[in-house]
Amino acid sequence: MKFKFTSESFKQKKHDLNRKHDFEDDDEYVWDQMKTLRADADQEPCKKCGWCNPSCIPIAIVFILIGLIVLLPLLEPSTDNLLHVKLNGTNYVCTDKCKIQLVESIPEGLNFSENSPKFLSTYDAWSILLNSTKDSLDIGSFYWTLRGADFYNHSSAWQGEDIFKQIMTNGRKKKYHIRIAQSTPTPNEPNLDTEIFIKKKVAEVRSVNFPRLVGGGVLHTKLWISDGQNFYLGSANMDWRSLTQVKELGVLVTNCTCLAKDVSKIFEAYWYLGVDDSHIPSRWPESYSTKFNIKSPVSVNFNDGLNFNTFFSNSPPPLSSTGRTNDLDAIVNVILSADKFVHIAVMDYYPLLIYSPKIRYWPYIDDALRKAAIENKVSVKMLISLWGSSRPSEDYFLKSLASLTSSFKGVDIEIRRFIVPATPDQAKIPFGRVNHNKYMVTDNTAYIGTSNWSGDYFTDTAGIGLIIKDSNTGSNENDTTIVTQLTSVFERDWNSPYAVEL
After folding, report:
1. What is the pTM of this model?
2. Domains in the chain, CATH or no CATH each
3. Do 202 and 168 touch, CB atoms closer than 8 A?
4. What is the rounded distance in angstroms from the CA atom of residue 269 to the CA atom of residue 71?
5. Are 55 and 46 in contact (CB under 8 A)?
6. Tell me: the pLDDT tens digits for 261-302?
7. Catalytic residue positions, numbered
8. What residues contact 169, with CB distance under 8 A and at least 6 apart?
């Protein structure tokens, strides 16, 4: 069957095409075009048996294709379709059966008592993700030195070297697609591992140049995302020392698409910015936005237990898409929302911008701690690392906080320094033997992040925080949750011989 077009019908079609954009509804345009096609076509054969006539089938196919082209985009969900999430009134509820567990690296030679809490090792957590991934693995990282040959050969580099081999094997065999977003390499951190990945076509690698994009800083995130449903977030760099020589803490979350898809949006921002001519948009596209934040967290049931209000925060502010809570705002909120105590374990603590050309005062977290202790009568305990790279000035700021204790009735701020001991052999390892943790726990909330606590990490350096708040009123204090487990980690470290008085 052939279409019969006259010169008049051709002109009419051209006119119709030109006025396509005049329609407010794409549906109207589709149906208008379909009626025109029907009017122009020789449909005599179809009158006898309608559209069942074989000669009419091509016309039907044309109509169907036109309808699909225009109607399907209208029927598709929005870019943020809240997969695995339902609305309960105005609250978001995750429908996944999420599993969460604390992950630690305990340096060789750092021994706690037998009854102390123990958790999954970082090496085991990364191995689980490498072995269970089926389709995709995304890694957000600061730098890469998984092999001893990269930086300093030592027998304890074996765990990092094994992780490197697993990535090489899985990438070369194309078991799944691997993407790595990293901070731009420097002479001190040349990222030789990822250079090998690129040459061997093991992974796609992009480097994010923060000095070019925001005037300073680095990509300081430590994030693994597997198959859009499992992830690791914590303090451990892609460094063999982070597995055997440095004390680290993070979480492994599995079977949790609602959270993995959300944190993936932060990774996608890194991935976008890793292109050479990229720029930070004045407003991030809708596909990067989130519904989960400090005002509207998603309720997640972890480990078939209690529900927790959960969301991710990030820094610096220019990387925050619509709806995303800034990391500083999240930390201050956690501190001021505590009812009984605030326990903090971080490597560095300075109310300053210490990496800028001119040192500047940056009091926001410090002010929140003072307010919580003085106005809310919340007990504050801080466990700050003491190691070879600690600056002497740090002590003065810590002593300033601690001196408030007993200044007024009920004011209680205690600070201790955590020292990771080293044998003469271990002491030779550069930038090892340190408590690299970056977390906070209160009587109702766990905060696990990737940033040290000086101002630079929140103004021009990329980092992520995971906030998990107990939403269960009257819950049993004996319930084992991520909050109680994190509290047990802090108390173990605080009461250990490695924590010394300020």
Report:
1. 0.84
2. 7-75 (no CATH), 85-501 (3.30.870.10)
3. yes
4. 30
5. yes
6. 999 999 999 999 999 999 999 999 999 999 999 999 999 999
7. 220, 222, 227, 436, 438, 443
8. none
